[in-house]
């Protein structure tokens, strides 16, 4: 499971990010040392996820997005995550994530960032 990605295009090589990729809940349990209930309690959302990866490198920032209701003046705010530096070192990794899912959530646990990608 552990590995490194070298993200590159034709003109430049971007720094290596050491990450561990996982696709099964059992793999996530092994990485964290937590069982299913403990994962939920620690903030992991286990509904409808496709794949994830663990890294010590934080590559996102939190962004508050304000939404409105179609039949009211009331609004509400949701926090989303997006790439910390829009065209920075991890642009290609983030682009891969966004191209393969409808959403991504990040959970910090025991010194690692866990990024999980979700479908509908």
Question: Key terms for this structure?
Answer:
120 residues; five-stranded antiparallel beta sheet; 3 helices; 41% strand; disordered N terminus; single chain; alpha+beta; 7 strands; two-stranded antiparallel ribbon
Question: Strand content of the residues, in percent?
Answer: 35-45%
Number of helices: 3
Q: How does the major sheet shape up? A: 5 strands, antiparallel
Q: What is the average per-residue confidence, as pLDDT, rounded to a whole number? A: 78
Q: What's the number of domains?
A: 1
Q: Estimate percent helicity.
A: 10-25%
Shape: globular
The beta-strand count equals: 7
Q: Specify Rg, calculated over alpha carbons.
A: 16 Å
Gap from first CA to last CA = 26 Å
Uncertain segments of ≥5 residues (pLDDT<50)? 1-8
Summarize the structure.
This protein is of the alpha+beta class and 120 residues long. It contains three helices and seven strands; from the N terminus they run ββααβββαββ. The chain is globular.
What does this protein look like?
There is one protein chain. This protein is of the alpha+beta class and 120 residues long. It has one domain. Helix content is 19%, strand content 41%. The strands form 2 sheets. The chain has a 5-stranded antiparallel sheet with strand order 1-2-3-7-6, covered by helices on one side. The protein has a two-stranded antiparallel ribbon with strand order 4-5. The protein is globular and about 45 Å long. It starts with a strand and ends with a strand. Mean pLDDT is 78; it is low at 1-8.
